[in-house]
Design a protein that fits this description.
This protein is mainly β and 387 residues long. The protein has helices at 19-38, 279-288, 320-323; strands at 43-46, 50-51, 55-60, 76-79, 84-89, 94-99, 104-110, 125-130, 133-137, 142-145, 151-155, 166-167, 173-174, 177-179, 184-191, 194-201, 206-212, 229-233, 236-240, 246-251, 257-262, 291-298, 303-309, 329-335, 340-344, 357-359, 364-367, 381-386. The protein is built from three helices and 28 strands. The longest helix is centred in the N-terminal third of the chain and has 20 residues, at 19-38.
Length: 387
């Protein structure tokens, strides 16, 4: 049974005398837009995509009977070098390490609550660079731990209180990225009304760059979804607001931003701006409206995947604890140029809607943990989608 602790969440009118000039301007603007879109610096609107057939393999991870593992890990990182999943266990304040090849729990890394190796329980994000180099963000700092939980480095990053590093599918899902070679960390920040990406030089303790991201197209309130999702892909930053179909691709080398506007055709209805901000309405707004995830790169297939959670199929009479699990889940697949390829409909009412997913080079994977599923097993199970 899923834990309730995870349930706590986008004209001018010309005269006839100027008609010829008006048409000429339209022609010129149309040409400019065409050139802009085809040179990769403008905006591309795309239509619906075909349905992609998918096969699913399930892995049930073997664990010791004394292991207090979770059914799903909303804060996780996949290490392709050895095919392992590192998941934060909030119940035991540890990192559980699973091997896909061996289908078993390989190790548990305990995290300290106190002392020089302390990691706070307010965990936000984890990124594994090697089995002995695990980066964690806990609202206070980005810490690098080894495979025993010892802190080997810690970075108190600028604007720490305004960072938007998170793995919350009710709000936003945004990463950080560490460039060890150049001693730099890039991460998202909400600075006043601006969403930015800060590049911090931790060797010289200085901010070397702060890039302003495009504002959302809607200025209204969208529940807890106030911030963009964000991921790093080579020299590009790919971001999207959870309540918008638009995807923005920022080239950090040129400073140019390209936009792709693609709506998942499987979503039902649109999203109205929230007007009643009472706690009850805030909760239901996030359940009854869609949420777009960040994009995930599948290196082996040379494609990106974006997940979409639709509004619940249950009524409010069922209560939020059940309704939040009845959110249809879809995947949109894009090629490396972020052009849509197609869409996937996994089996519904089976997977965890609280960020319990990750990508391997070849497959998109989701933890099986849903109160509407008849399977009462307490084992850690993932569904691996191949397409």
């Amino acid at each position: 049974m899923a834990d309730k602790n995870f349930i706590k969440y986008f004209n001018t009118i010309l005269s006839k005398q100027n008609n010829c000039q008006h048409q000429a301007w339209i022609f010129l603007i149309t040409c400019c837009l065409f050139i802009s879109c085809n040179t990769g610096h403008g905006r591309i609107d795309s239509m619906g995509s075909e349905i992609i057939p998918v096969t699913t393999d399930s892995i049930i991870f073997k664990t010791d009977t004394s292991a207090l593992t979770l059914k799903s890990y909303g804060i996780n990182s996949f290490l392709k070098d050895n095919g392992t999943i590192f998941g934060y266990n909030y119940k035991t304040h540890s990192i559980d390490v699973f091997s896909i090849e061996k289908k078993s729990l390989m190790n548990t890394i305990p995290l300290n609550n106190e002392g020089p190796d302390a990691i706070q329980m307010s965990m936000r994000y984890i990124k594994v660079y090697s089995p002995d180099s695990i980066a964690l963000y806990d609202d206070t700092a980005i810490s690098i731990i080894d495979n025993t939980g010892k802190v080997v480095n810690r970075f108190i990053i600028p604007y720490n209180g305004m960072t938007r590093i998170d793995c919350n599918s009710r709000s936003n899902m945004s990463a950080f990225d560490i460039d060890f070679k150049n001693n730099r960390i890039a991460y998202p920040v909400k600075n006043g009304e601006k969403n930015t990406v800060v590049v911090y030089d931790f060797k010289n303790d200085s901010v070397v760059r702060e890039t302003i991201l495009n504002s959302p197209e809607s200025n209204g309130k969208h529940g807890f979804m106030d911030y963009p999702n964000l991921c790093f892909s080579g020299d590009k930053i790919i971001y999207n607001y959870p309540y918008e179909h638009r995807i923005c691709i920022l080239d950090m080398t040129t400073g140019m931003t390209r936009e792709v506007n693609h709506k998942c055709s499987l979503l039902t209805g649109g999203m109205e701006v929230l007007t009643d901000e009472s706690p009850d309405e805030l909760t239901w707004y996030g359940i009854e409206n869609y949420f777009y995830s960040p994009l995930y790169y599948l290196e082996g297939k040379k494609c990106y995947v974006r997940l979409a959670l639709d509004g619940t199929t249950l009524s409010r009479s069922e209560g939020p604890d059940r309704a939040i699990y009845a959110r249809p889940l879809y995947l949109s697949v894009f090629n490396e140029q972020l052009e849509p390829i197609g869409e996937i409909t996994p089996r519904q009412n089976l997977y965890d809607p609280f960020g319990g997913w990750f990508a391997t080079p070849e497959r998109f994977c989701l933890f099986m943990d849903n109160v509407l599923d008849d399977n009462e097993s307490e084992s850690t199970i993932i569904g691996m989608l191949d397409f």
